[in-house]
Amino acid sequence: xxxxxxxxxxxxxxxxxxxxxxxxxxxxxxxxxxxxxxxxxxxxxxxxxxxxxxxxxxxxxxxxxxxxxxxxxxxxxxxxxxxxxxxxxxxxxxxxxxxxxxxxxxxxxxxxxxxxxxxxxxxxxxxxxxxxxxxxxxxxxxxxxxxxxxxxxxxxxxxxxxxxxxxxxxxxxxxxxxxxxxxxxxxxxxxxxxxxxxxxxxxxxxxxxxx
Amino acid sequence: xxxxxxxxxxxxxxxxxxxxxxxxxxxxxxxxxxxxxxxxxxxxxxxxxxxxxxxxxxxxxxxxxxxxxxxxxxxxxxxxxxxxxxxxxxxxxxxxxxxxxxxxxxxxxxxxxxxxxxxxxxxxxxxxxxxxxxxxxxxxxxxxxxxxxxxxxxxxxxxxxxxxxxxxxxxxxxxxxxxxxxxxxxxxx
Lengths: 211, 189
Hints:
Order of helices and strands of chain B: HHHHHHHHH
Distance between the termini of chain A: 36 Å
Helix content of chain B: 55-70%
CATH class of chain A: Mainly Beta
Helix content of chain A: 25-40%
Largest sheet of chain A: 6 strands, antiparallel
Number of domains of chain A: 1
CATH architecture of the largest domain in chain B: Orthogonal Bundle
Distance between the termini of chain B: 22 Å
Largest sheet of chain B: none
CATH superfamily of chain A: Jelly Rolls
CATH architecture of chain A: Sandwich
Number of strands of chain B: 0
Number of helices of chain B: 9
Number of domains of chain B: 2
Shape of chain A: elongated
Oligomer: heterodimer
Largest interface: A-B, 59 and 77 residues
Radius of gyration of chain A: 20 Å
Strand content of chain B: under 5%
Shape of chain B: globular
Number of strands of chain A: 9
Radius of gyration of chain B: 18 Å
Number of helices of chain A: 6
Strand order of the largest sheet of chain A: 1-2-3-9-4-7
CATH topology of the largest domain in chain B: Rna Polymerase Sigma Factor, Chain: A
């Protein structure tokens, strides 16, 4: 799998820092499950954070902190054995950890399903599925919109986006994506902020996400 | 090659805990990391009381998971950082009433692959020295934005105000610095 579009370093560093909201982190994580180069980048940024931890100043703990810790480890249970699913999951691991809604037609040859990320931070996560050759009408973004392709491919003026590719768009970008011929295109999308009426996808998903 | 009795390298404290549930090694590890976890979390925006609780939880987690630590892949500091980060994410989500997946699920792909350089003779702790060298080699103006961004989680707008430089300059310096760090470190990550 050749991946040509990656999250920016700023985004990868924020993922390493744990400061992305859950929806954004899930889409980045989906990309990472396909991209060893970005996994290495996140590990680099984690190592910088590790240095920040090791070389930074400590803060004084409560007087009985070590006693409490020693008492806690005396009664610690061994960690649960990580659950391993036997079969091949349909989607990459981070995505299959979330409840997925049923596919619904939203018009224009596009289907939509919810991804059960708690919408605590104003980011909605959903999957889109479009038939080969679908021309998705003009849409603008009302905020950050991150997309990771799971299957198939689409193109817009920034290039071709196939499996694993990550499209990091903001409201300065106007897209005119066209789904490639061949197979259905399936994506996971995290859309941040108020969905603007102008946004085509926003209009389509509005009845479902109840903004 | 230091043995796991070496009392200066945290990776060897971890090895001692994994091998024989060594409580003295745990006390040493706690003495080094617990205050640093608390300090780091406070610098990156967590209240003191909660930072102390997360430091306690993180060290308990370190005790329970010590045998999963692989010194050929990560330094003790990076491994413990990731544990504390995930605990903070889980706590924030829980406080907001969310019931999503545990943070560890989102970071699993980073850990689950085999070491990409099995031929590498560098241990995680030695690779930390490479990180320090790479940071030291950054121009001062880039290091200033890296410090505020990576060490203190300051937003780009706040960094611009603190340093008295335009937002665009913050972003371009950070981009340059991150590209340099990746160029030197990704192959060891």
